[in-house]
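Retro notes
What went well: the complex prediction finally ran end to end.
Inputs used:
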Amino acid sequence: MKPAASLSRSSPRFLALARIVGEKQVHIDDEFYRDCHVDAIKISRTPLAAVEVTTAEQLPEIIRIARDERFPLIPRGAGTGLTGGAVAERDGVVVSLALLNRILELDTQSQLAIVEPGVITQEVADAAAQVGLFYPPDPASLKESTIGGNVAECAGGLQCKKYGVTRDYVLGMEGYTMDGELLRTGYFAPDAPLDLTSLVIGSEGTLCFITKIALQLITPPESRRSYLMTFARQEDAAAVVAASIGSGVVPAVLEFMDGDAVALALNYLGWVDMKRPEAVLLLELDGSVAEIERDHAILDPLIRQNNPLAFESTPDGARREHLWTLRRSISPAVAASAPIRLCEDVCVPPSQFPSLIKHVVKLGKAHDLRVLSFGHAGDGNLHVYLMADKDNEETHQRIDNASADLLSLAVELDGTISGEHGIGITKRKYLPLEISSTTMEVLRKVKGVFDPEELLNPDKIF
Amino acid sequence: MKPAASLSRSSPRFLALARIVGEKQVHIDDEFYRDCHVDAIKISRTPLAAVEVTTAEQLPEIIRIARDERFPLIPRGAGTGLTGGAVAERDGVVVSLALLNRILELDTQSQLAIVEPGVITQEVADAAAQVGLFYPPDPASLKESTIGGNVAECAGGLQCKKYGVTRDYVLGMEGYTMDGELLRTGYFAPDAPLDLTSLVIGSEGTLCFITKIALQLITPPESRRSYLMTFARQEDAAAVVAASIGSGVVPAVLEFMDGDAVALALNYLGWVDMKRPEAVLLLELDGSVAEIERDHAILDPLIRQNNPLAFESTPDGARREHLWTLRRSISPAVAASAPIRLCEDVCVPPSQFPSLIKHVVKLGKAHDLRVLSFGHAGDGNLHVYLMADKDNEETHQRIDNASADLLSLAVELDGTISGEHGIGITKRKYLPLEISSTTMEVLRKVKGVFDPEELLNPDKIF
């Protein structure tokens, strides 16, 4: 990657942007600017500048300048993405929507929320909970990621097998395409005969800026029961997953963690007492008290038959938080221990999940990398961290090779190369593994409708 | 509408089409051809011909001829649409996909079905039921309509408040755009970063021919309880609807029928014993036995408090079929009694539903038309038949005026002009009531990606 440079404070572009958003919101040399070089996966690119908009109406003005002067714009939320979607792949200006962070409306009768894109996902969930409602999508990053970023990436989460992903909760949007006009979809444009809402969800900021989102909320489950179980053998964990799926019980959460992931998290948490298992499952039931009782009666013996080392189940909310700690600590533990890392996110049919986790161990050995895996066993969605310590060409090459092997393996196992992290920069070269040139051509043309000059988050996906 | 004519048997176009599909499948003067002049709403247009494809691979050849000779193609399923989507608005060839009617795969483990577009919706539901699964979308036409037509129109149905509409069950598609190339979406193109599946659903045959559909099936509810209640006053029925929504109970079905709709159906059925009520509600609970018991304990007193004339509730499957008969007979009763009719399909917030049904009665008087209404009270989706006996200019004008009044009213009540029947021909002029010119322009350009020469179902929606 060529070393790019930021705008100078006296350049016409800097001045034009400063006129729109105010000089303080145009960053070219501070911490905010440097944060905008990367996302959570630490792919580093140097943007011309990073601009924070404070009102949605500033966007058409910024778009006009970008088109006149032909520089790219890169929409950004919290920068927690894992495929490079929010970094400037070409010389361009990062446009942060994080300050558009108001919850505009909470309608308990219609069970919906209208929010700006910069609201933190956890705040959406909290606001819903405060009025007795439930916003289910819960990506691991929910305490930092923005709802706009969640929509752009179609974030999933731990509860997605039962409750679906972000797509299933977006009723409509407002935003600006690169013609600078306000686009309204779904809830904001009833009767629109083509579903532009779904088109924008998961488009990774390549079609439009999102400035307002209508979200469906639902009635929360009456009750929950959480299960944490450890195993000396991955096969036993896999057997529990298979038996659970076969039983007809639909857990809200069914998370797998391999021994390396757990060991790293235990070390990070300082939980020195707990002996390293080879696999851990976190499972959660929710629903009416009667449903949970019924499902518990099925699950409890099924778990005990498969040799758990330790097994706890609890309906208690506080204890639940404790059981979840291990799962939630994996990503911060990786961030603290591995300066160079790639988080792959493959998805296979649940029946192939055991094969997949077995292969991941071999992958580390074959490419001389630290590797760990964890993910949503109920969906067959596995996250695999490929980790190294030295930041050099050779290390990156090894990670790249391991990644290519993993993605090919997922496709061989009838799976997909991206479960919920998007395509971005890191996976675009693998798209032809799965998508025909005809379909890709249609996708490119649809992108062209929204951004004919390829100035909006260019070189992502396509 | 100018009187058009069919192709002659010796014309080059006829011969070219006959070469592809066989002469017997090119219709220019038989009953099949005449059936293709109309859909369920009896908007009549004369196509050049009606062609039945027998394999999906014939489509690219037909497309090539249509493009070379610049005539439109109009995809058609069973012709049960209610807005004219399947009729030839311009001189064009109707292409029936009804013979592509195989269920290709039923995967009980993954709970999905792969079907061709010509399979009757009821057959999809039956095939799912035979392997212990459930396909919920149930438009009133389900015994005649094709699944491809359901997808093209994004059909809803009686259970859509609880179970969603066709959109919620389509995992992916194969089809041909007007470039004649095979487009694969969703399930058939994992990882496609833009959601082309959702774009095609509800696009009313304007974007592509659909040749294969992957459908999500779900686990059926354990049990059901059906309720039929009649009222002397519409207000009492409305009060039950409001109280039911307010109670937190989510019925699978909550259907309203006004007195005129019921009277027509009673007469059609020959049920002379039953006195005409002013409103009827059909309600159905489903779920576990425990859930139904809990909800029944809430609903039963709530219904009794609101002065039902008669009220029956039953968990019995055979009796259920009987209770449903009245609702299912409305459309055939209308078809038998009113040669000229328009079925409007407006949707308002459930809180505005009582206002809407009150206004409908006035509408008939104001425009001197027979009017009746029925629909999905749980969603605020009301179907309104505007009916007349004489097929002349003046009658059509009165129906048109009444329709315009009704649609404006729906928009005034914060509603939409189409609940589940699409836009087609009949509603396109009303789209600007709700959709900005900017959004409309984006929709038009997206259409252009799939059909640059406007030859696929032209003049629908746009």
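What we learned: The longest strand of chain B covers residues 223-231.
What to try next: split runs per interface for comparison.
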